[in-house]
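Progress report, Aim 2. The chain analyzed during this reporting quarter is listed below.
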Amino acid sequence: MSNTNTLVSRGFQVPLTEVEPAPRVITPPDPSLDGFWRCRVADRCGGAGFDEPGSGYSFSAVLAEERELEQLNQPGDPSSALLKLSIADPTDKMSYEAFATGIKLFHECPDASRYTDLAGVRAGNGTDLGDTHEEIVKYLIGRFPQLADQLTVDWVQYSPGAIKRALAEYIPAAFFINEGSPTSRRQTQLLYPKPGYGVIKDAINRRGAIVTEIPLENHNDRWQMPFPWDFQLADYSPVLYLNVPHNPTGMTYDVNRWMATLCWARDVGAIVVVDEAYIDLCYRHDACSVLTIPGWEANCIVLQSVSKGWDATGLRFGWIVAHPTAIKVLRKVMDLKDSGMFAPSIAAGLECLRNPVWTTRAKQRYEQLHRLLNAGLREAGFNAPMPEAGLCQFTPAPVAVDGHRFGSIIECAKWFRQTLRVSLMDYELGRHWYLRWAVTIKPVPECDLPTRESVIAEVCRRLGEHRLSF
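Predicted structure tokens for the chain:
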């Protein structure tokens, strides 16, 4: 008897026949529609020229170029490898214990795939984790005992999308006032230290705020904000963005710097948005969080996450600490913009907070890599002070190599990436050029560079083959 599968055997009268799939034909986009869409692109996104060179997010452009350059890697040849020191994205994996907690919640909690909204995960979720905000409060009090008599769940809010989402959406929507406000309140003036993490100041995100850039200054190999500040604030409502510990310079604040900043903020009525993404990776003994300074709550919105200290950038789990009134309005904004994170991801983030020792190990690991890279950069002629915090070293860029003078910092970075095959981020501050060297290094075993240390050694070897002028 034939075992041929037919529609007759399934109760139908027509034999089942195999039909060759038609080849897929890709219809090219209609060129006439390009102009239609371009003329409708909002000015905040760049208008019709939104995709012109230099108009996009620089990190994405670098990553795209790196993917192309990596194709030239030759197996077994260290000198051919593209060495990526560009993006401060940890290459180690988040601890498996955190991931396992998320898996356990997924298996045990019947609501594991449902909306979490503003509350996050609740106690009784199949793990021994409590409510999301209770866990965050416990962590913060353990990390900053000064908060023990102050902090409750009304002072914190977990942030889907970590710090970047808070800077791009939640905070501007809640606190940035547009020109022509119906309540006649003053338009927001965003004070932005340069260089820095530009998400909050981008036209896409800043909600019409006026941006005043404040170039950082270097004194005796220490970066700092110029002080005292004398800004024209009379006609605006000031918001100061402080990415401290700072990326890319590694600048930190001690108690005195924070007290001076908060005193100024109280005098002028400024909101201070403090981005503490790198607070767990401080190498300077007197560096401290603004949360340790009495009176921080009068003006500050503090952002933290598990991204850097716990090697968990892809988890996108962060939290906001602020006065309860500020948290209350942020919750109103978030409720309209998001339905919460995936519950197992929240559980993994909370498990990280239960294990602060993991950040100690990460800090030790990165500090060792910093010292190794720093020694090599100095030997190659760079003025390279050790960073006070973070994942990057920030050095003046060479103006010439082997007698050839660069016309711009873009040309300099291009030479590093395409000729030296060392990918870095570049910055221009006034008339000065800088390069950022991230120690979140990924080994290239196919090119006989099996460790991060071997990659650093290869970087230094290549630098030693050229005459750099500064």
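Residues 357-379 form the longest helix (23 residues). The first strand starts at residue 83 and ends at 84. These observations will guide the mutagenesis work planned for the next reporting period.
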